[in-house]
Write a structure and sequence with these properties.
The chain is of the alpha/beta class. It is about 35% helix and about 15% strand. The strands form two sheets. Strands 1-7-6-5-4-2-3 form a seven-stranded mixed sheet, sandwiched between helices. The longest helix is centred in the C-terminal third of the chain and has 21 residues.
C-alpha cells in the first residue's frame, strides 16, 4: 500500500508541525503546531503588558474559536459553546437530564461513565450498560436490541479509544428516532474523521488530542432538541442573559448553547483552539482523513507482516486513526520497549499496544515500527 505524499505528511498541513518522526500517540496527546505556540505566546505577551483594552481584545478569541468549531461541525455559533475539556461537557449533559435511562456502552473510556454514575447518585438520569456486538463494537443493531421505553438518551464515543472503530452516527440516529438524545464524545475523531456530527444532539470534544490545540481547550455542540431537553444545571454567571449586568437577580439561561458556560475561560487557550481549528479548516477534514487512512493502512500492513494480531478494524470505512495490536507470546511492555528503542512513541495497555497516526506522520514512522517489531522475532 502506498500513501500519497509518502515521504512526508500532508502538504499544506504537515509543515506546521515538528513532532518527532516516530511520534504515534495522537490518541493520547497531539503536539501542537507552531501556529498554536505562536498564538499562545502572543496572547500571554499581550497579557503581560495589559492596558485598558487588553482583556477585551483577548476575549475576542472566544467567539472566533466557537465560530470555527461550528463551521467544522456543520452548525452555527449559537449552538456552540467553549468548554475546558470533554468531561465538562459530558457532566453538563448528564446533570441536564432530569430523569430516564441512558444507554452507555461497556468498555467506554471512563470519561463517558462517571458523569452518568454521578447523575444517578443525584436521582437524575440513570445509566444502563449497553453491550457491544460479537466483535466488541457498538452498532445500530446493538442499540436497537437494548432500547426500551424508559431510554431517553444514548451516549457513545464517535471513535473507540481502544481500537479506532468509528460509530455509524447516522445509523444510531435512525435507530433511536428523533425523540431520544444522542450524546457523542468526539475527542478521538473531531477534525480527523468526516462524520455526520449533525446526527448527534450533543457533541463534545477536547482539543488536546487530534485537534492539536493543547490542554484546557474544547467545545460542545447542542442541537435544538438538546437545548429543549437539557436543563442548564451547571450553567454559571456567564451562561445567562445579560451576563454583564450584576444586579443580585438570577437571570434566565442564555438562549443557545452558551447556557452551558460556567465562567469565563482563558482567552489564551481560546486563541490556541481557534488557531488549531482554523488550521484544520484550511486543508479540510476530508484531506486530513484521507492521509490518515492511508498511513493507518500501512501500519496495519507492517504489524501483520511481523506476525501481529490487529485489533482495529481493517475496513477503512470503519476506522479512524488508531491501530491497536498484539504480538502473540510477547508482553506489550516488551513490544513498547522495542518501539522506544527505534524512536517510536506508542500507548501501552495491559493487553495491547496502540499506535495513532496523524496527517503529519511520515512514511519513515512505518519503517521504524516494522524494524522494531522485526527485532522481536
Amino acid at each position: 500500500m502506498t500513501a500519497p505524499h509518502a515521504t512526508g505528511g500532508l502538504p499544506g498541513y504537515a509543515e506546521h508541525f515538528e513532532e518527532p518522526e516516530g511520534y504515534l500517540d495522537f490518541a493520547r496527546y497531539g503536539p501542537p503546531s507552531r501556529d498554536v505556540l505562536a498564538a499562545t505566546a502572543e496572547a500571554l505577551e499581550r497579557s503581560a503588558h495589559a492596558d485598558q483594552d487588553t482583556v477585551n481584545d483577548l476575549m475576542r478569541a472566544e467567539p472566533r474559536a466557537r465560530e470555527a468549531a461550528a463551521r467544522l461541525a456543520g452548525t452555527d455559533a449559537a449552538h456552540t459553546v467553549l468548554l475546558p475539556n470533554t468531561s465538562t461537557g459530558l457532566f453538563h449533559a448528564a446533570f441536564g437530564l432530569p430523569a430516564g435511562t441512558v444507554l452507555v456502552p461497556a468498555g467506554e473510556f471512563p470519561a463517558n461513565h462517571y458523569p452518568w454514575r454521578r447523575s444517578a447518585e443525584l436521582g437524575r438520569a440513570v445509566p444502563r450498560v449497553l453491550e457491544p456486538d460479537a466483535r466488541g463494537r457498538i452498532t445500530a443493531d446493538a442499540v436497537r436490541a437494548a432500547l426500551t421505553d424508559d431510554v431517553v438518551a444514548v451516549s457513545v464515543s464517535a471513535v473507540d479509544f481502544r481500537t479506532g472503530y468509528r460509530a455509524d452516527l447516522a445509523a444510531l440516529r435512525e435507530v433511536i428516532g428523533q425523540d431520544r438524545l444522542l450524546v457523542v464524545d468526539a475527542i478521538q475523531g473531531f477534525g480527523v474523521a468526516d462524520l455526520p456530527w449533525a446526527a448527534a444532539d450533543v457533541v463534545v470534544a477536547g482539543g488536546q488530542k487530534w485537534l492539536r490545540a493543547s490542554w484546557a481547550t474544547g467545545f460542545g455542540i447542542l442541537s435544538d432538541l438538546a437545548l429543549d431537553r437539557l436543563e442548564p444545571t451547571l450553567g454559571g454567571w456567564t451562561g445567562v442573559e445579560d451576563a454583564g449586568v450584576f444586579d443580585d437577580v438570577e437571570h434566565p439561561p442564555a438562549p443557545g448553547a452558551q447556557r452551558w458556560s460556567t465562567t469565563n475561560l482563558s482567552p489564551v487557550t481560546a486563541a490556541a483552539l481557534a488557531t488549531a481549528l482554523e488550521l484544520v479548516e484550511g486543508v479540510g477534514v476530508p484531506a486530513v482523513e484521507a492521509h490518515i487512512r492511508a498511513r493507518v493502512g500501512q501500519f496495519i500492513d507492517a504489524v501483520r507482516s511481523c506476525g501481529g494480531d490487529v485489533l482495529s478494524p481493517t475496513d477503512p470505512a470503519e476506522r479512524a486513526g488508531i491501530v491497536s495490536f498484539r504480538l502473540p507470546g510477547t508482553d506489550p511492555r516488551h513490544v513498547a520497549k522495542a518501539l522506544h528503542a527505534h524512536g517510536v512513541t506508542p500507548s501501552v495497555r495491559t493487553d495491547s499496544v496502540r499506535l495513532s497516526a496523524h496527517a503529519s506522520t511520515r512514511l519513515a514512522a512505518v519503517d521504524r515500527v516494522r524494524a522494531a517489531l522485526t527485532s522481536l522475532r
